[in-house]
């Protein structure tokens, strides 16, 4: 059986690595240099980095140069997201050398463009399904963007390679992942799912590892690592022996 992939997160706001609660602007806790954070996760054995330009996601500017600097400094795979919504922002993101990008708002607001870039770039494109209940959210998670399962069916029919599923209600809260949501999404698609939101303990990671046979491929871990609930080395060990 495959091992659950772990993607430590570095979310960048105003040049700093931050964590938010429920993705709400203004709830930031700062953790210093994004490059230092990313290099620390790499040194600890991460195979992936989940790197988010929060200013681009919120529409409050961007950290494009810094995000490029971090991505170029990594020897590991990078999943890049935040504000990738048109040809120019996609070209800039892919040119960083990231392994894949994660599209959020664009999948809700410009579906024709997303279908086109899925066809052009295959598995370098993932779609982030950021939900409250079963309602998708875009534009920094401030605007409703339709029904989760209708959108998932549409993206599946267009050949989307992978989904990053975030329960906004759990994100940054250390309250545990939404296992029911993940099971329901896995039942609705044959494509791999990366879980995001709520991880608080090694037991949460073991529970997510138990969903690998259903289609959960990986888990994004943010607050729990920054709050030192466990180390990345411990997390990697826990999923390797799950
Ligand atoms: O990761 C967050 O905490 C977050 C909070 C609020 C908005 C977005 C967030 N992250 C990721 O950003 C992209 C969406 O960006 P866009 O809509 O494509 O511009 C998505 O991966 C979110 O999970």
Write the layout of secondary structure elements.
Elements: E1 5-13, E2 16-19, E3 29-30, H1 34-43, E4 48-53, H2 54-58, H3 64-73, E5 77-81, H4 87-95, E6 100-103, H5 105-109, H6 111-121, E7 125-132, E8 135-138, E9 143-147, H7 148-157, E10 163-167, H8 179-188, E11 193-196, H9 202-209, E12 216-221, H10 223-226, H11 232-240
Parallel strand pairs: 1-4, 1-12, 4-5, 5-6, 6-7, 7-10, 10-11, 11-12
Antiparallel strand pairs: 1-2, 2-3, 7-8, 8-9
Helix pairs in contact: 1-3, 9-11
The ligand O=C(O)c1ccccc1N[C@@H]1O[C@H](COP(=O)(O)O)[C@@H](O)[C@H]1O binds next to helix 2, strand 6, helix 5, strand 7 and strand 10.
Q: TL;DR of this structure?
A:
With 242 residues, this protein is α/β, with parallel strands linked by helices.
Verbal overview:
- The protein is an alpha/beta fold and 242 residues long.
- It has 11 helices and 12 strands.
- It has helices at residues 34-43, 54-58, 64-73, 87-95, 105-109, 111-121, 148-157, 179-188, 202-209, 223-226, 232-240, and strands spanning 5-13, 16-19, 29-30, 48-53, 77-81, 100-103, 125-132, 135-138, 143-147, 163-167, 193-196, 216-221.
- The chain has an 8-stranded parallel beta barrel, surrounded by 8 helices.
- A hairpin with a 2-residue loop joins strand 1 and strand 2 (16-19).
- The relative contact order is 0.16.
- The structure holds ligand LGQLAAA5.
- The ligand O=C(O)c1ccccc1N[C@@H]1O[C@H](COP(=O)(O)O)[C@@H](O)[C@H]1O binds next to helix 2, strand 6, helix 5, strand 7 and strand 10.
């Amino acid at each position: 059986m495959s091992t659950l992939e772990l993607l430590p997160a570095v979310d960048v706001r105003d040049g700093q690595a931050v964590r938010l609660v429920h993705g709400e602007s203004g709830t930031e806790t700062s953790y210093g240099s994004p490059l230092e954070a990313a290099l620390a996760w790499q040194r600890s054995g991460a195979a992936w980095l989940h790197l988010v330009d929060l200013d681009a996601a919120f529409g409050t500017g961007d950290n494009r140069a810094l995000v490029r600097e971090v991505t170029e400094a990594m020897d590991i795979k990078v999943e890049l997201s935040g504000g990738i919504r048109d040809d120019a922002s996609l070209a800039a993101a892919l040119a960083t050398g990231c392994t894949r990008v994660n599209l959020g708002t664009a999948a809700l607001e410009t579906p024709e463009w997303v279908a086109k870039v899925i066809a052009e770039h295959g598995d370098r494109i993932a779609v982030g399904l950021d939900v409250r209940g079963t309602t998708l959210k875009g534009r920094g998670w401030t605007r409703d963007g339709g029904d989760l399962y209708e959108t998932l069916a549409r993206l599946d029919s267009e050949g989307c390679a992978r989904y990053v599923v975030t329960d906004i209600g759990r994100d940054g809260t250390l309250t545990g992942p939404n296992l029911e949501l993940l099971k329901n999404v896995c039942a609705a698609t044959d494509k791999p799912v990366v879980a995001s939101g709520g991880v608080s303990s090694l037991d949460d990671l073991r529970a997510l590892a138990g969903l690998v046979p259903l289609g959960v491929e990986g888990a994004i871990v943010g607050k729990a690592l920054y709050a030192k609930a466990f180390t990345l080395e411990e997390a990697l060990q826990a999923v390797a022996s799950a």
